[in-house]
Amino acid sequence: MKHLIDPTDLTLEEIDEILKLAEDIMADRPAYAEVAKGKKLATLFFEPSTRTRLSFEASMLELGGSVIGFSSANSSSAAKGESVADTARTIEKYADIIAMRHPKEGAPLVASMNVDIPVINAGDGGHLHPTQTLTDLLTIKETKGRLDNLTIGFCGDLKFGRTVHSLIKQLSRYENIHFILISPNELQVPDYIKEEVLDKNGADYREVERMEEVMDQLDILYMTRVQRERFFNEADYIRLKDSYILNLEKLENAKEDLKIMHPLPRVNEISVEVDKDPRAVYFDQAEYGKFVRMALMMKLLGLTK
Ligand code: NCD
Q1: Predicted pLDDT of residue 128
Q2: Which of 83, 118, 153, 167 is the most exposed place for a label (fewest CB within 10 A)?
Q3: b/e for 268-288, b at 16 or more Cβ within 10 A?
Q4: CA 138 to CA 150: how far, in whole Å?
Q5: Which residues of the chain have pLDDT under 50?
Q6: What is the pTM of this model?
Q7: What integer pLDDT is reported at residue 75 of this predicted model?
Q8: Residues known to be catalytic
Q9: Where is 66: in which H helix or E strand?
Q10: Ligand 1 centroid vs 221 CA: distance in angstroms?
């Protein structure tokens, strides 16, 4: 295990180890306060972020390490035309591990091919977001107690949402997962996910347009925002942006033990009245993201307690 570019870079055993380590960290945070002493994380964020970048940084600080980086392409030499490969080769001289977010699919992979330190994909365009996937797995494990035998509804922008693509890719490796893909026609999961991930793994899935139709069947409802920055024109975004607004009324037929997840940021797709419902776990999910990133960086850097 050297880089994390795609969730399938990790075996199921490695993922299990990372989730277990995250649980150990949650149970005894002081024991991990100095394990990364002297180590530096570089966060190279060419796209906006709140949770991913700050949870990475908080994770490294909580492990006793330190952090350098930039939070927009404009404040780095990318604005002068530097290539991702050159940026990565430079940062390698300053840091021990890189977390990179980039609007271009494959940019973190290119970085990883040019350096000897671990590179973590913190989101590449509409492609993948493997550390959000680890976050989601830890959330599912902690709140449902299992990673198999689940009916999960993905709702919203399934076309451009990288968190959705990444989590589908991962969950289709577990037993007896039923996927219900809830989206307007124009925002359906891309064909390559259906063919190369769902069909290839023999996963059970169906596509629907209305969340009300399937609400009573779900163990997990994974809401997502419409990804404005990936649209080719604003008129389409405006037409589609409020396709789904989850409120308490829509949850009337939902299971008592449903868990409502969202990678955040939320725009309008979950009404704030839902936040108080015990089934809403999206802010806990953001917290699990910090612990799972601590565990991941320990593994990639070969650190132990
Ligand atoms: C997601 C992302 O960046 O893909 N955010 C996150 O990392 N938690 C989801 C989104 O931006 O909608």
Answers
A1: 98
A2: 83
A3: ebbeeebeeeebbbbeebbbb
A4: 15
A5: none
A6: 0.97
A7: 87
A8: 51-52, 80, 101, 129
A9: strand 66-70
A10: 16
